[in-house]
Amino acid sequence: MDILIEDAMQYSDDFRLVNAFPPARFLPSVKRTIVLTEKLKLSLEECIGRHLTSPPSPNCYAHFLLSQSYPRELAIFSIFEVFALGLDSTGSTTLWALGLLVHNQEAQQKLYQEIREHTTRTEKGIVRADEVGKLEYLQAVVKETMRMKPIAPLAVPHIAMTDTVLKGMPVAEGTPVMVNLYALHYDPKVWDEPERFVPERFLESSNMFRGKRGQYSFLPFGAGMRVCPGMEVGKLQLAFAVSNLVNSFHWSNAVEGEKPDLTEDFTFVLAMKKPLEARIVPRGI
């Protein structure tokens, strides 16, 4: 299944092309992606189906979805979205955070100091999951990473449910609608120096946004009724991973004076075009 997920991610841009230009569905690459998606769907149905036939365990997400009378297909996709896509997106965003911290050593040091001063940690030096929420600078680093590197730059395509008008432009019922989150997150009318990694902009003491417009200019998980169902899990996983990786290791340039390449690769998720290269030195925990 991992191979199917990886292949589906690799060719997922074809679906974005079809959403923008429907005739593109006849391209060979799109047909290949559809075949891969169907294989992945069948594999998921088989895997999750075996689980659903067994007695439900406490707090089982799959059984909960079915108990709410959701269609089986929707339940299966929701599970895939939360766990399969969630793991891939969390891993990619963690790499972005580490890469940005290699580029910005001062921010990395601030984060390390906050972790050391405001967490108890386990006997093995692991930052506890129930403590990451109180680390203000950690949360700022996570948010600034998601601002600069939104995992789904064009969000998930939606469909207009009725005829409507958007800023004077008619939008017919059934029209695919995509939101450019990447552009929102780099809007200079909202963000000071949007190209710079500045976690401080998300601290309570700072003037994070300019005016009311700001609340709609940071949407890494989307918004509204169709917001990412794995949002809270994703934020916790990301904060937990980044805090422990920075607490345990110092991250710096692999080659003295040469910062790692952070070129972006636009697929289903915003990934690094090249693997992150860094010098990783264990800290004295």
TrEMBL record:
<feature type="binding site" description="axial binding residue">
    <location>
        <position position="228"/>
    </location>
    <ligand>
        <name>heme</name>
    </ligand>
</feature>
<keyword id="KW-0408">Iron</keyword>
<comment type="similarity">
    <text>Belongs to the cytochrome P450 family.</text>
</comment>
<dbReference type="InterPro" id="IPR017972">
    <property type="entry name" value="Cyt_P450_CS"/>
</dbReference>
<dbReference type="GO" id="GO:0020037">
    <property type="term" value="F:heme binding"/>
</dbReference>
<keyword id="KW-0349">Heme</keyword>
<dbReference type="GO" id="GO:0016705">
    <property type="term" value="F:oxidoreductase activity, acting on paired donors, with incorporation or reduction of molecular oxygen"/>
</dbReference>
<keyword id="KW-0560">Oxidoreductase</keyword>
<dbReference type="InterPro" id="IPR002401">
    <property type="entry name" value="Cyt_P450_E_grp-I"/>
</dbReference>
<dbReference type="Pfam" id="PF00067">
    <property type="entry name" value="p450"/>
</dbReference>
<protein>
    <submittedName>
        <fullName>Putative CYP719</fullName>
    </submittedName>
</protein>
<dbReference type="InterPro" id="IPR001128">
    <property type="entry name" value="Cyt_P450"/>
</dbReference>
<dbReference type="GO" id="GO:0004497">
    <property type="term" value="F:monooxygenase activity"/>
</dbReference>
<keyword id="KW-0503">Monooxygenase</keyword>
<dbReference type="InterPro" id="IPR036396">
    <property type="entry name" value="Cyt_P450_sf"/>
</dbReference>
<dbReference type="GO" id="GO:0005506">
    <property type="term" value="F:iron ion binding"/>
</dbReference>
<keyword id="KW-0479">Metal-binding</keyword>
